[in-house]
Amino acid sequence: MMPAPENVAISEAAAEVRPEADPVQESSGAASTPLDTTSTTTDDVALARNQTSSWKGWAEIENDPVVFSTLLREWGVPNVQVNEVVPLDSVFEYPPQSIYGLIFLSRWAAPETENDLTEPPAGVWFANQTLSNSCATVALMNIVNNHATINLGQALNDFRANTMNMTPKERGLALDHFDHVRDVHNSFATEFDKMNVDLRLKQDMTAAEKKKKAAQSKRPRKKLKAEDESDEDESGLHFVAYVPAGGVVWRMDGLERLPRKLGVVDEGDSWIAMVLPELQAQLESVTTNSLEYSLLSLTALNDSWGLEADKLKVERAREDWGPFLAQMVRIHADKGTLKQTLG
């Protein structure tokens, strides 16, 4: 969800993937007027959808297992479901072999230990997060792309094959250019969400430029260091994946350059048991500090009885009342009845 810190991942990546003609992401609704609900046609709706799919940013999405399951299905992965793990020992409700990975959400903090790896592990698919707000998708991709038995559908199968020999940074950049994945991710965002992302991007660019100029000036180094520390305190919520691949259990944080090896898992052993101590420690930490957290599991779809209910929930989650509300405000403002309507 948060952008890659300069000292952890790849801060220059955002500039590399941004279109040359415009250094700032454009939201399809950033410069448009509210929709006229009295004259909207099906052609207008189709045009709006085409505009939405052209947006190159990543919007924040809700931390909801139904939303995550829908992402997978609409990417072309039909037989995987996402479940909330509450309490922690409920993860054992599923056989370990049917659990493809875990995703832990908490406030991001810089790692306290060095990574033992110095090179990307062979045969393991791991992508860096190169743009803000894409960490949910990066975590999902870092799990499903490491399971050859999962039916990913043609689009994701081709993507995995084409990116397997890339570096983690190159995979992250390729993911940012993968319109099919990004458009499904952004289908849960409103135009207001996209406008907020664009605004934050402009603010980040301004802050980065000021920081660069300050570093080039003759101000005391001590003051610069204090500013760096204040920036690190503004870290946000972030998704991290845990996944078995190649006989090893990995902690995959897209904000780190490489995955972290948790240990070797022998055939027949439970890889979940290897992850539990670390998860338990993290849960105790966030609970003590009253921080938000969540744990999700990716498992084989064991039944489809809830798919229709999920579909209705997703339809509601995708409803965007912003244009309608903006239009109603404009109508009442023109009539002079806005104050009366608002009470």
UniProtKB/TrEMBL annotation:
Pfam family, one: Peptidase_C12
Keywords (A to Z) from UniProt: Hydrolase, Protease, Thiol protease, Ubl conjugation pathway
MF-aspect GO terms: cysteine-type deubiquitinase activity
Domain of life: Eukaryota
InterPro entries, alphabetized: Papain-like_cys_pep_sf, Peptidase_C12_UCH, Peptidase_C12_UCH_sf
PROSITE patterns (alphabetical): UCH_DOMAIN
GO biological process: protein deubiquitination; ubiquitin-dependent protein catabolic process
SUPFAM superfamilies, per database record: Cysteine proteinases
Any single Gene Ontology cellular-component annotation: cytoplasm
Residues the record marks as active site: 135, 238
Family annotation (Gene3D superfamilies): Peptidase C12, ubiquitin carboxyl-terminal hydrolase
Annotated UCH catalytic domain residues: 57-300
Site keyed Important for enzyme activity: positions: 253
Biased composition regions of type Basic residues, renumbered to the chain: 210-224
Record-marked site positions (Transition state stabilizer): 129
Compositionally biased tracts (Low complexity): 30-44
Enzyme Commission no: 3.4.19.12
Disordered: annotated span: 1-44, 208-230
Catalytic reaction list: Thiol-dependent hydrolysis of ester, thioester, amide, peptide and isopeptide bonds formed by the C-terminal Gly of ubiquitin (a 76-residue protein attached to proteins as an intracellular targeting signal)
Similarity annotation: Belongs to the peptidase C12 family.
UniProt protein name: ubiquitinyl hydrolase 1
Species, as recorded: Cladophialophora immunda
